[in-house]
Amino acid sequence: MSRVVHFELTADKPERAVRFYEEAFGWKIEPWEGDVPYWLCTTGDSDNPGIDGAIMKREQGTQNNFSISTDNIAQSIEKIKKAGGTILSDVITIPTIGYSVYFKDTEDNLLNLFKWDCDAE
Among 22, 86, 111, 118, fewest CB within 10 Å belongs to which? Predict the structure, then answer.
């Protein structure tokens, strides 16, 4: 069974959103050291239920989304298509993190399929 493992909040002004979530909810938010502006959000103690996520710049067509984990990205892509979903991107490699592909479900919700792999290059 696949679980929701990450969320992405989009913002017109990500720095403003960072301040909001730090002040309103006490989240710990730090810039990601990758190629794109992206702020990682720790939403609470890992001993408690919940997920962590990120804040990113809102671009045309982007919206808030959730990442769903998979052990086999190719197999999950086929299942998404068979169930009526639409694949929106090629598989994206995130070095030392894993692989990602964006898709929409049958209700036009944007989601992300994610496979952890610290050896990803």
Answer: 118
Question: Using one digit for the tens of pLDDT, what is the confidence trace for 46-55?
Answer: 888 899 999 9
Tens of pLDDT along 37-85? 999 999 999 888 899 999 999 988 778 889 999 999 999 999 999 999 9
Q: Does domain 1-62 have CATH number 3.30.420.40?
A: no
Q: How far apart are CA 66 and CA 112, in angstroms?
A: 6
- pTM of the shown model: 0.80
The type of residue at 86 is: T
Which one, of 71, 77, 57, 50, lies nearest residue 8 by Cα? 57
CATH for 70-121 is 3.10.180.10
> CATH 3.10.180.10 occupies which residues in the chain?
1-62, 70-121
